[in-house]
Amino acid sequence: xxxxxxxxxxxxxxxxxxxxxxxxxxxxxxxxxxxxxxxxxxxxxxxxxxxxxxxxxxxxxxxxxxxxxxxxxxxxxxxxxxxxxxxxxxxxxxxxxxxxxxxxxxxxxxxxxxxxxxxxxxxxxxxxxxxxxxxxxxxxxxxxxxxxxxxxxxxxxxxxxxxxxxxxxxxxxxxxxxxxxxxxxxxxxxxxxxxxxxxxxxxxxxxxxxxxxxxxxxxxxxxxxxxxxxxxxxxxxxxxxxxxxxxxxxxxxxxxxxxxxxxxxxxxxxxxxxxxxxxxxxxxxxxxxxxxxxxxxxxxxxxxxxxxxxxxxxxxxxxxxxxxxxxxxxxxxxxxxxxxxxxxxxxxxxxxxxxxx
Length: 357
Ligand SMILES: [Mg+2]
Hints:
Layout: E1 5-10, H1 13-21, E2 30-33, E3 42-45, H2 47-50, H3 60-66, E4 71-73, H4 77-92, E5 97-102, E6 105-109, H5 119-141, E7 145-150, H6 153-162, E8 168-170, H7 176-180, H8 193-201, H9 207-212, H10 218-221, H11 225-232, E9 248-259, H12 262-282, E10 286-296, E11 301-312, H13 315-328, E12 336-347
Parallel strand pairs: 2-4, 7-8
Antiparallel strand pairs: 1-6, 1-7, 2-3, 5-6, 9-12, 10-11, 10-12
Helix pairs in contact: 4-5, 4-12, 12-13
The chain binds magnesium ion.
């Protein structure tokens, strides 16, 4: 069977939801994040704001300096999560095997519904499917998505990054080596800042340089060498990660200012629990173990966990257990710098069978 993988990525997701819900923001540089007066951080930026150099995780005050006309909008995480849930439902409707990567990004394995006489014909069969998916998201959610189609995860992601927003790019197997040549090495999965610097220092700036490199890459990148070379040639056999393969799900938040305010901490746990519930539901899993993690101002870090017999699937249960753990273990004896919540020992919930496509 020929592999056919799509990578779907919503375009400027948070900012697009804001522009959709408030038409006055359409066409304006929207900056989702705390206002610059409150030493906040940018959560997301619309394409208009990105043109001014505004990026997520940037201090709001810097964003304001780069883009004085920017419209600051407070993030509405609940709305984005709800939107994400609806989009993932539309994606599930395609019959694909789905690995959700984040609120606005997923891999779809459509191999079983997109088979033809050879690899490239199979990829082309996925084009109408991708077009229909984009059209449904546009008509039902009034948002745009970009989709990349290729024979593996590495290339599908590179394809969706290739042309945004509202793009659809297919990388044929026959052209993948050429397609990758002019891209910076950073485009390859697994090449972060550190590896990039090593490669640049060795004169390897483009993927093509890696393809042509006659020497052993192990001298530069150690045990990553074999995989890096495969990636540079457009080969990648990583499977989609489905529910039965993940071991834990967690989130954490670092506070702008250390806090022991119970209301703030509870709100934080509540949000994390809701996120965990969504990710558990998506993978049709329940969790036996709930873990909280706290870090104090001096960076001392403690974790405490509790395991239950019946797998948990509801945010309310996970949240209650987390609050209870914080209290029982007296973890908030002094202000927290960071608070995290996670679940592990993942199982399919009792009485329900995991449906394998
Ligand atoms: Mg996105």
